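WARN no homologs supplied; continuing
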Amino acid sequence: MSPQVNLVPIAPVEISQILSLVREFYALENMVLTEAVAKSYGALLEQPEWGRLFWIQFDGAIAGYGAVTFFYSFEYHGRSAIIDELYLSADFRGQGIGGSALAQLEHFCRQQGVACLNLVVAAQNDAAQKLYAKHGFETLKRQLCIKWLI
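OK structure emitted
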């Protein structure tokens, strides 16, 4: 039987609750949650045209969260999105919840007119890589390059 997974939009007033899970995610990924990064979650909640944050609920309990942000790309045929973060608390992993949440995020993006869905996964995160490949994501032979402007 398939798990009862629902995506529920996160409201701006729930910023402290989401940041609690973000801290867990950042610790797991060995990333630093700075004040500037924390503020960016609130900014996204206030600007839905930039993307959305969702609670991932499993049988009514908050299992994690997902973040989708939008952009435009000629290469990716117009309006595109990135699953910027997909996080499940430890107790909810390995039960099919991530796959269900991923499918629902894809459905949401299709409803938003997204032509191409992207994501970034850590090279050492084998479990996530397997999940994403199972759901049709392919690894491009490209290198992500960034330059901080702030």
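The chain has one domain: 5-134.
OK
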